[in-house]
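Subject: mismatched residue count in predicted assembly?

I count 834 residues in my input, but I want to confirm that the predicted structure covers every chain. Input:
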Amino acid sequence: MKSGAIIFIIAIAVGVGMGLFAQSNGRAGKSETAEKSQTTRPRERDQQRGDHPKWRSGDFLKRAGETAEARKHPLGAELANWTDAEIEAALYEALTKPEWLLNGSPTSDAASELFAEWMKRDFDAAYAWFLGIQDGTAKKQLTVCLGENWPEDRASEGFALLRINPKIFSQSNPARRKFVLQGLQDEAAKGGAIGLAALLAKINSEKLLSKYGYSPGPELPDDFDFGALAATDAFKDGWDTSEIRGLVSKWMAKDAESAVAWVLQTKGPGGICDVFKFGGATSTYNAVGGQMENWSDEIRSEFLDTIEKQVAGQLYTTSSVISELAKGTSDPALADEIREVGIQGMFAGRTSNVLPILDEMDPVRRVDALLAATSGMPKGQQNFGQSDEELLRKKLNEWQVSAEQTEEIVQRFKP
Amino acid sequence: MKTLIIRITLVIFGAGLGFILVAGSSTSISKSLVSDQLPQSRRRNVVRASASAGTERKDLQCLIRNLREDRQKSDIRRELERMSPDELRSGMLELMEVRRKDGTSSTQFLFDEFGAELYRREGEAALEWAEMQDTVATRFYESAMCSILKAVAASSPSVLKRWVGRLPDNLQQAELSQHYTIAINSAAERGTDDWIKAAQLPIQFWQGASSYSDDFDFSRMLKEVPNGSGVNDALSYWAAQDKEAAWDSLKTIYDGGAQGEEFFLGSLWKGVASTEGSQPALDWVVSHLDQIPESSRESAIEGLAREVRNRPEDFGALLKALPKESDRVTVAEEALDLRSTPKQQKEVKAALNDLPRQEQMAALFKKAKSYAKLYQEVESKRAGLENLLGSSMDLFNLNADERAQVMAELNGSPSSTSP
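Triage response: the counts match. Full output below for your records.
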């Protein structure tokens, strides 16, 4: 037995030696591989991985489209395998973390994903849990998740909650709208204009319609009677809310003549701009552009003056408005009159946005308009910079404007 | 024969055991070597592969790790890695064309991914390429530049700063804010040195990072960049973890003669309140007030009031917790500015109404004095400030004589009864 033990120890020593030998060879091999991998060029990597052709932009777009929903809930697939108890335990753990104090922390993002998944599979249990947790930063953030994932078929319960606790969402929080109002309006609209008006009046009396942001408005049946809705007090009283302006925008897209006439009559040309600000869509702009042919010079001028004043500060919203308004009319002269108001944006330093609009103008009128351009902004607010000048000169050259006129135009825009 | 078999078995077993002992350790060594040497994106793949190979743990930490990995984008990133820089550039041009035609929302996310990969490969040459693109017809220049700058922001605040300075003025303020946010967030995750560099960016908003490295030195942050973006949010976070350390650091700043930034003491309260509850946190903060030098006390209390006012339900408790009349007057004066006290904050108004008359009047006199100083500087503000003061007087239902005393203070001729 003694000799057996000696043999065993010797054998272990031999094994260690063999292991060390193999390891030293292995290390050399690994480090070579690692070094190689550091210097491997992309094309060589392609060959290594190349079991399929490289993606083209269309493949990327397709994949991005396929994963769009999944990207909104990056943990969705993983959480599908979790039990409710596991979700609840992780949520409780999350509540103890100080990371809620940090804006957009991964902890609060993960907790929102957990809560959303639980709401999806057992809303009553998730909601009861939510009601039971302490007030504070975490609950405030989970409230947003609650609103965003509130079940569409339980809108009236949401509305009841909002009535009891109106501060649950701030006015500017988009979750607030989705939380209750969208589903309720969808439901009421099925009953026609009077039913929707009654609901809007009720919500407005609770001061729960939104003063900010864009409202997509309810799904409306094809035969929805906008005229009847517009005749109600609910519609007039709620004018300064995004819900009503969203409905006017829908009306404009469906029956531009009646809708635009109603707005002009009740609110004047500025009312059209109010609708654009809170509830505009391409079809709305086109529809209004088409109606402008029928307006008096006075109304047209007042409307374009209002748009022009907005252009300087907000071109990112108004450049598309201008372009689509112009596209809506079949009168080329009117279209150019509309496009001209965009020129104000150049004084504000938005030349790259304005030039594509001017590109669509009649060349002679374009040059005349540029030669006559006068800023509506105080000098101190003008922001036509060096890059704007370079862009403008390049474009004027492309438009074959004379050197003399080019100089005159450029000087007009310099602050 | 039997002995021989036993000996052979011992030899084989011993050799095998020895081999496993050494080779096993070498496997783990080579694993760590590989993962340390691989570039970031490759390491991502290694983690992903190992995670998906077995059954994952089901806990919060695991979820957070997976969230950071963002697996939904993994195949897109893998495919981007296969492309050459030329292919990435032409891909961006094609995506821009698609966006111009149909405004597909997916293109922005893809654009950012292409931009990030191009920057990873080419560094600043990617920005130079974007800068050279035609800007007039497509706005491509701005879009490509912004996407690449996001990647720059995530890794190198100094390069970001240089390019923002180099770029012409058609980068939008909102886009710049986005880049700065990315820069400050990423730097905080890397550590204190990087965050301090990133805090030099001209950031004009107040928001903390979304996470900080485990060894982040909050004390250094307060000391070196007390005015940095998001310092107050970070202080709250720190206080929630270690209130005594946060207080010690803040006290050093007060002891050094600094007034303390706007919300410092409020941020301390907010952090402690998040773990211990509002009232215990108030009691704790108030118990430390006497340690603040007298010269800094008023501004410290103002900072506390501003933060507590964001939770109007706690405002009354704050007034009750403060030991000195001068502290309560400071808080009341701070809350009297109706421009920043929304009308719906009934709790704040109710708490102010509960103060003794002399403290209400003292707060109004103080407010009137500060307004008088303001409109001495800008006369055009006078009417607006008088209105605001009028609203404050309405809140307390002042009689005519009391109103006259306050207005006299505003006009620079205080009556004998005012302090």
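Chain B touches chain A through 84 residues (CB under 8 Å). Marking this ticket as 'not a bug'.
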